[in-house]
Design a protein that fits this description.
Distance between the termini: 35 Å
Shape: extended
Largest sheet: 3 strands, antiparallel
Radius of gyration: 15 Å
Order of helices and strands: HHEEE
Number of strands: 3
Number of helices: 2
Helix content: 10-25%
Oligomer: single chain
Strand order of the largest sheet: 1-2-3
């Protein structure tokens, strides 16, 4: 049975590497910044995120999950 991953291991997973090599580079391995969802949502249920010219919507559900849609 594997251990539950923490935020550090999830945010530094090689699948999140966008350098094109498929593996995280050891020399550039550093923790990704953490942001609390409450900071993004600011008391609301939905926030818009503009990324590379496209608008995304981050929504908190009644069950406490997050949904990101384009």
């Amino acid at each position: 049975m594997s251990a539950t991953p923490n935020a550090f291991t999830v945010l530094n997973h090689p699948s999140l590497d966008h350098s094109g090599g498929g593996r995280a580079a050891a020399e550039s391995a550093r923790p990704a910044p953490l942001v609390e969802s409450a900071e993004l949502l600011k008391g609301g249920k939905t926030v818009g995120i503009l990324h590379n010219g496209s608008l995304y919507r981050l929504q908190a559900t009644k069950l406490g999950k997050l949904i990101l849609t384009k």
